[in-house]
Amino acid sequence: MSGLEVVVEDARGCARLFRLGRDVEAGLAMIAVIEAAQPFVERMPRDVQSSWGGLLGFMFNDQQTQNWLSLADYLEYELVDLLTAAQAV
Hints:
Elements: H1 3-19, H2 23-42, H3 46-64, H4 68-88
Helix pairs in contact: 1-2, 1-4, 2-4, 3-4
């Protein structure tokens, strides 16, 4: 399994934690996912990097408002799509 595949699986696992209401554990996992994804994003095209910044803003806003389900969706769908689509480029 490649490093990017590990990040994708970790993002999905983090989303599951948020959906289960384990927000403290999920919050810590989310930090690890973001830190692990950052080096991959830095090697991607500028438009992906721009999308990454916007996505982080949405995710942090959901975290502040404790909108765990929306945050889980961003992790499981938007983040995974961003990472995998950019990998295909």
